[in-house]
Design brief:
two-stranded antiparallel sheet; 24% helix; 5 helices; 21% strand; alpha+beta
Length: 168
């Protein structure tokens, strides 16, 4: 992913108001992000921990931002491990969370959302590349896919979720 400016990020959001995009806080380590290892930028808002954000590069060169809601209460089930639906990384149950995205446009203003289970720290690209390790007691799942195939799968899964949010 090419590095983005704060202005590009704020202008990219399709499912929140301009005011909400102006108020969001960038990741605390924004100036030190490993852009070359990112296929998308994802973070939990440091100023509003029940908000998260994804910004993806698009083919037209303009980024696309999605605002997400983080659940306000923890899970009460006894699930020992969970699988991210974007990168398919296995985590201890606290490493994956259900994030809900308001739909873009009028449907979102009416309160309609879609959700997906995703790495709680939104660091899917780093997990796929092996730059970050999940805290899964049973260890990593072994896959026969190449890194390029896993990155393609992650991008396709994320694109499918974004298509549900944007209605495209």
């Amino acid at each position: 992913m090419e590095p983005l400016t704060e202005k590009q990020i704020r202008a990219s959001f399709v499912n929140c108001t301009k005011g909400e995009a102006a108020r969001l806080r960038l990741p605390l380590d924004f100036t030190e992000l490993p852009w070359k290892d990112l296929d998308f930028l994802g973070w939990v808002d440091p100023g509003a921990p029940l908000r998260a954000h994804l910004v993806l590069p698009r083919e037209d060169g303009r980024p696309l931002g999605i605002s997400l809601r983080v659940p306000s209460v923890g899970r009460t089930s006894v699930v020992k491990s969970s699988l991210c639906q974007i990168c398919l990384t296995g985590h201890a149950s606290s490493g994956v969370t259900l994030l809900a995205a308001p739909l873009a446009g009028a449907r979102g203003r009416e309160g309609n959302t879609v959700g997906t289970y995703i790495c709680a720290d939104l660091a899917c690209p780093l997990y796929v590349r092996g730059k970050r390790q999940p805290r899964l007691r049973a260890g990593r799942y072994e896959e026969s896919l190449t890194l390029d195939e896993r990155l393609t799968r992650m991008s396709e899964n994320l694109d499918a979720f974004v298509a549900r949010v944007t209605g495209t």
